[in-house]
Amino acid sequence: MVSKVLLASPRGYCAGVERAVETVEKALDLYGPPVYVRKQIVHNLHVVRDLEARGAVFVEDERDVPEGETVVFSAHGVAPAVHEHAAAQQLRTLDATCPLVTKVHVQARRYASAGYTIVLIGHAGHEEVVGTMGEAPDSIVLVETVADVDALEFAEGTRLAYVTQTTLSVDETSEIIAALRRRFPDIHAPKKEDICYATSNRQWAVKEMLPEIDLLLVIGSRNSSNSNRLVETARAGGVAAHLIDDAGEIDETWLRGVTVAGVTSGASAPEKLVEQVCDWFRERGVSKIEPYRLVDEAVEFRLPIELRRELELAQVQEP
User: Fold this and answer.
1) What is the tens place of the pLDDT at every residue in 232-266?
2) Alpha-carbon distance 173 to 54, whole Å?
3) How far apart are CA 96 and CA 92, in angstroms?
4) Is residue 23 part of a domain?
5) CA dist list (Å): 204 to 89, 229, 232
């Protein structure tokens, strides 16, 4: 029977997600609904539903947005072609791409313009990867595993560099980078690793907590890369782990033989979902619910500049 629940720290919203969600909220306040959003603003079902209730309209393609309307680009980033389509339809665009993803895009463009072939470490089909590959489609090769690295073949004299998706497993990515360096000792590396601080911190927090828990519940949506990596981190450390969208998905059979349960949340999961999971345990008689260490993340990203200008203008015009 569960006698205690430990809450990982840090967990939940990162600065990039905070910025993206706030961008849609402020746009709705400023322009009124509808505000269109290309793809899910962040990979969390609850966040998307809450914004839909306020008047956000989510579309799969920027060309689905009526001419002249406002569209927000998600935190995962978009390819240059998306900006071109939006301009052709005279859309008012607000780019909520996480600045750490933008950094990877800039690196990819620089490497490509300098004549490098770029190896992108990431998950095929993920929106961030699609956006990054769109920056230099003729110069980027995607790898997902060490086996993919082993299969790479380049012409003699090819100058190589690598970049990574920002929400990968730190450990798995290190293995892939090591494999790249073994095969291609002269491969050029980014000055600073691309995996974002929030992804690294949340994986570190789970690793630190593993010796204290018998089970880990990760709150996050199925399409959230960083949430899935938290589940993998726990399982790699020998602790059972499950990904849940909310408290309603907890299966009580998971808790058989569990004395201490751990709870964490992916970088796009709001804290209210953690509170609901805590309430679920309280309803079943668990009174000891406490943080496992407290780590502060002081990172903040400013809203997109085009939105800041509009907000400042609106304030000036207020009577």
Assistant:
1) 999 999 999 999 999 999 999 999 999 999 999 99
2) 38
3) 13
4) yes
5) 44, 11, 12
Q: What is the pLDDT of residues 15-72, one digit of tens each?
A: 999 999 999 999 999 999 999 999 999 999 999 999 999 999 999 999 999 999 999 9
Catalytic residue among 128, 208, 271, 312: 128
**Largest CA-CA distance found in the chain, in angstroms, rounded:** 68
Taking residue 53's Cβ as centre, other Cβ atoms within 10 Å add up to 8
pTM of the model: 0.94
Residue span of the structural domain in which 305 resides: 15-97+301-317
What's the DSSP call for residue 119?
E
CA dihedral (18, 23, 25, 29) positive or negative: positive
Same domain, residue pair 282 and 204: yes
Same domain as 288, residue 206: yes
Taking CA atoms, 49 is separated from 44, 135, 253, in Å, by: 9, 31, 29
Q: Domain tally for the chain?
A: 3
SS3 56: strand
- Whether 175 is catalytic is no
